Amino acid sequence: MNRSDGGSAPAVDPLGEAVIDRDGMRGLVGVLRARGLTVIGPTLREEALVLAELESADQLPYGWGVELDAGKYRLCRRTDGAAFANSAGPQSWKTFLHPARVRQWRAERTEDGLTVEADSAAAPRFAFLGVRPCDLRAIAVQDRVLGTGPHPDPVYRSRRSGAFIVSVECTEPGGTCFCVSMGAGPAAGPGYDLVLTELADPGDHRFWMRAGTPEGAEVLAELPTREVDETTRAAARRAVGAAADRMGRAMPGTDLRRLMADTLEAPRWDDVAARCLSCGNCTMVCPTCFCTTTEDVTDLTGDHAERWRLWDSCFDLDFSLLSGGPVRSSPQSRYRQWLTHKLGTWYDQFGSSGCVGCGRCLVWCPVGIDITEEAAALHDWTLRAETESP
């Protein structure tokens, strides 16, 4: 249920393919902006690779990589000029599709009474440049959670509608990546308009680009390109295939949904609770966590009020607050809720895992709690329990 062959072949037959160079990448950003799209991509800012609006492809982090471990994130210089040979940063595309703060309505007290106005600001049409396969899967997960069903989220749907996605296959996994064991990479799955594989060879820095939709094919046709040769195809496939063999982490090869259900009383939960700060960092950086709360604010006169929707976390003590107090009052119960939902009961709700193996929760945990280590410890406990049972 949580395994993948890590294959490097394109997920679908391309509607068009070509090779572009750095000038072609400049052309790509220019074409997308000319179509009225707000281009978002990775760029260097304040000693981190962040997602921000790009006015030019020259703002991409050419020549920069990252060193990752549990509780550790460091920028490093690469020996080549690759733009996308780095692992996921602290942000995900959730930041733009499911924003951390959304005003829902505002109210004004006037001489004629109270006027309430729903917030209806038009969302920009985004072009996401550099969506990694794990994040492409995360967008698909959030599409099911927030974009479909009997009560879809209108904010998410308005921002997701018309979004143009340029995915980048992974050739340089980080020390905390485990997308292969979650079936989410390093080759790109479906859902992109364009997908590229970067080859930063000396003297021939190029990108093998394929279209996945008619709109993607239209954009590709507007770029300065050269014909694809079999050498480039083969090199790109080898690079992605090699990345599948260099994952820094892996989930245990077992049915994670069953594992979570069978270990609710395992002593390991007390062990992790002794280390967990209940800060909620893991939920904030997770590309699929979606919980929110609401907050009403008013000015000092009482004549103006607003309601805001904010990201929330199941690690917050008040998240499960009822009239008699919080349902999950201990760090142990809150961590267990998060992990068993992410790897287990998410299947019951949405038909898939809630984890895509991006590793962000490891990197941005202040005490370096490792979700793969915790799952492996629970698996080991079940094996010992089986051998010790009469």
Number of structural units classed as domains: 2
Biggest β-sheet description: 7 strands, mixed
* Coarse morphology: globular
Distance between the termini: 29 Å
Strand content: 15-25%
Stretches where pLDDT is under 50 for at least 5 consecutive residues are: 1-12
Number of strands: 15
* Helix content class: 25-40%
> What's the rounded overall pLDDT mean?
92
- Kindly name the structural category: alpha+beta
Strand order of the largest sheet: 1-11-10-9-8-2-3
- What is the helix tally? 12
Could you spell the SSE succession in H and E letters?
A: EHEEEEHEEEHHEEEHHHHHEEEEHHH
Rg (CA only): 22 Å
Textual characterization of the structure:
The protein is α+β, with helices and mostly antiparallel strands and 390 residues long. It has 12 helices and 15 strands. The protein has 2 domains: 17-244, no CATH class; 256-388, no CATH class. Helices cover 31% and strands 24% of the residues. The strands form 4 sheets. It has a 7-stranded mixed β-sheet with strand order 1-11-10-9-8-2-3, sandwiched between helices. Strand 14 and strand 15 (325-326) form a beta hairpin. Helix 7 crosses helix 10 (331-350). The relative contact order is 0.17.
